[in-house]
Structure formats: C-alpha cells, structure tokens
Structure to design on (400 residues):
C-alpha cells in the first residue's frame, strides 16, 4: 500500500504545477491516516517523504538557486491546506520554509546560495534546533575559524528525519550564534522524547549536541538575528505560520462537522426532523463561518503587509516593520480564539456520537490547544492595546 501511494505521489508531482493543487493532493492522502497516526505519535517518515517528492520544499527558494520563488501568499496557503487534515505535518513543513527564510534574513546570498541550491536539487528537509530561549547549548570558540556546540535544545520541531539543521548556542559573552549544519553531523542526536497531548507527530522533543564542530562559515553573522528591521521579520513570518496552522485546523474541524451534521437527525426536542434544518444548529454553524471568514480576511491583510516588507528588503524601516507586526499579531489573536472555539464547539452540534475514539475528533482541539500555548496570547493583546492607546508598535523579539 505504501509503495503504491508513493508512486501515486510521484505522478501527482510530475503532472501538477500549481503548488496549492499539489498541497491539496497531499492533504487527501494524509487525511486517510491522520486520525490513526495522531494516536501513534512518533515520526511520520513516510508522509514526510511524500512532501519531499512533491517538490514543495523548494517553494520558498528563489529561482536563481533552483527554487520556485513563490510569494508568501502561496506558501502560507499550502501550509493552511495541509493543516486542514494534519497539523503536525503542516507544522514541520511550515517550519522548513521558516528556516529557509531565517537564513535569508540573517545571512547573504554568497553564504546561503549553495545551501539553497542543494536543498532545491535534492529536496532536502530543514529541521529546527534553534530555540533561542533554551540557553543550555554553549558555543565555544576553539580556533579562529571553528566553534564547538555542546548541550541540549528543547522544542526542536521537525529535527528528526531532517537533512539540514538550524542550530544555536550562546558564547561566553552571552551572544547568540546560529549555524547551519547537516543533520548527520557527528555529535548530533535526538532523544525522541516528545509525548504531548497535541501535535504528536512534530518530533518537537529534545536534541543533544555532543561537542559538535561548526565552522565559522556555517554561522549566520551578516547581518545576524534581529539586528535590522528586515532581519527581524523572522518572528513575524513564524507567527503567520501559526495563524495559517490554526486557521487550517479550524477549517478542517468545520468541514468534518458540516459533513457529519448533514447525515444526522435533529435532537428529539427539535421541531424539525433533520439536523441541518434545526435553527440552533444553523446558528452554531453561522458563528463558525463568520469567525473563519474574519480570520481569513485578517490573515490575507497580514500576508500583504509581510510581502510588501519582504519586497522592500534591507531598506525596510523600523516603522514599516512595526506596521507588519500589528497586522500579524491581530491575525494571531483572531486565529487563536477562532481555532479554539470551533474545535471545542463542534461537539456541541454533533453530540455524544462525535466523542467516539474511532473518529478521534478531539485531535483538532488538542493540536491547536497545544500549539496556541507556544507564546501566551495575553501578551499579544497587551501589544495591540499599547499600540491602540499610545501608537507604540511592539519591539522586535523572538516571538513578536
């Protein structure tokens, strides 16, 4: 069965050129096993290989390096599409593009050009061992051109089964150093200890660096992290990945609920026979729809702001960057609230039958509940409120 599916995916990737159509084909395949794989947890190796074969990993790489040079709207749409059926795979796929953007923002073409060409040619998957808030990994300079990274990193999404890692460590002066290395480099290992209630196939556990040697030319130093308004677009790109992750999950839950309700009888206390004609059921679905439409509009507005800033490049001003941050944070708040509301309240309309373990519909809620805790939404409200009242935009940070 797996061999047949893989061959089918090769056919899809060779006959389709539209990335969104390719993402839809992937989503159809992922949907058949998503509920079962959520229960299993672990690494979705087979599904990740389908993403490799699809060609979507080169989507965010410029054409001059052999990639597709897609705009952000297309990239985010593919993430959203996959998230509708499998938010774990959408997560690691989205982070792949985030890490490529990180390298582009923190370095120069003469450094990252070779990495991007290799990625596009060999369909390489990038994994995350960056996590700058976890300071347990040290970066010790042992010669003029070489460092040693040693220690642990938590929340390393997509690290297992990756081909290239973005990693970080702090030197003796407390400076964050970020490097790009092959995942197979000697001294790199993964504990496989991710066992959370949601996002169960993101491999977001602990990575260990046992005296890993990293060359000077593998470090991203020009301009480096958050050193310019342009380089500080990185956390906003990440936040928009979460927006489309949450939106996709909410859309997926909404579609499952809509399809299911069309086959159900109304409650015994209702004055109608079929659930679709029940006025209270209709009210719930109207609320779901309005909230989804609101998030879609806010997400599109944020993408337009990000794309404009991305096109400006290194000439981007702090004021322009601040305008993007407000648009992104607004969408993040709306996506968080909507995804939690819909994934919880689909049970209100579907009833007790929807709680059967076979359907595993609670995975939609568990996934967004897990990922929305990535950084507290309360602080997003504070940032928006401060801007509304004082005009001050959020300061660039690793999560804003």
């Amino acid at each position: 069965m797996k061999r047949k599916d893989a061959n089918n995916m090769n056919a899809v990737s060779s006959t389709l050129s539209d990335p969104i159509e390719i993402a839809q084909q992937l989503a159809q395949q992922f949907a058949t096993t998503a509920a079962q794989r959520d229960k299993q947890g672990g690494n979705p190796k087979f599904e990740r290989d389908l993403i490799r074969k699809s060609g979507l990993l080169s989507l965010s790489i410029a054409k001059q390096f052999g990639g597709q040079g897609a705009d952000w709207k297309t990239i985010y749409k593919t993430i959203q599409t996959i998230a509708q059926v499998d938010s774990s795979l959408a997560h690691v796929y989205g982070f792949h593009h985030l890490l490529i953007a990180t390298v582009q923002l923190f370095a120069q073409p003469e450094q990252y050009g070779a990495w991007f060409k290799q990625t596009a040619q060999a369909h390489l998957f990038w994994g995350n061992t960056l996590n700058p808030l976890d300071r347990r990994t040290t970066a010790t300079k042992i010669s003029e051109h070489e460092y040693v990274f040693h220690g642990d990193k938590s929340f390393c999404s997509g690290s297992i089964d990756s081909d290239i890692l973005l990693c970080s460590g702090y030197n003796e002066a407390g400076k964050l150093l970020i490097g790009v290395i092959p995942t197979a480099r000697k001294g790199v290992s993964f504990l496989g200890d991710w066992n959370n209630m949601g996002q169960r196939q993101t491999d977001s556990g602990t990575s260990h660096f046992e005296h890993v040697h990293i060359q000077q030319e593998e470090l991203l130093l020009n301009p480096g992290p958050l050193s310019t308004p342009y380089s500080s677009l990185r956390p906003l790109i990440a936040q928009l990945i979460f927006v489309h992750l949450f939106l996709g999950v909410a859309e997926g839950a909404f579609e499952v609920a809509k399809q299911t309700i069309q086959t159900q009888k109304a409650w015994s206390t209702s004055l109608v026979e079929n659930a679709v004609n029940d006025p209270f059921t209709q009210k719930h679905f109207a609320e779901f729809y309005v909230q989804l439409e609101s998030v879609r509009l806010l997400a599109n507005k944020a993408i337009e702001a990000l794309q404009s800033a991305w096109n400006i490049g290194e000439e981007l001003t702090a004021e322009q960057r601040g305008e993007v941050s407000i648009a992104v944070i607004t969408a993040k708040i709306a996506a968080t609230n909507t995804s939690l509301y819909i994934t919880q309240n689909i049970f209100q309309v579907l009833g007790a039958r929807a709680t059967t373990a076979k359907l595993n519909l609670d995975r939609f809620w568990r996934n967004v509940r897990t990922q929305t805790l990535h950084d507290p939404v309360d602080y997003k409200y504070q940032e928006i409120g401060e801007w509304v009242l004082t005009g001050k935009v959020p300061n660039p940070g690793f999560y804003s």
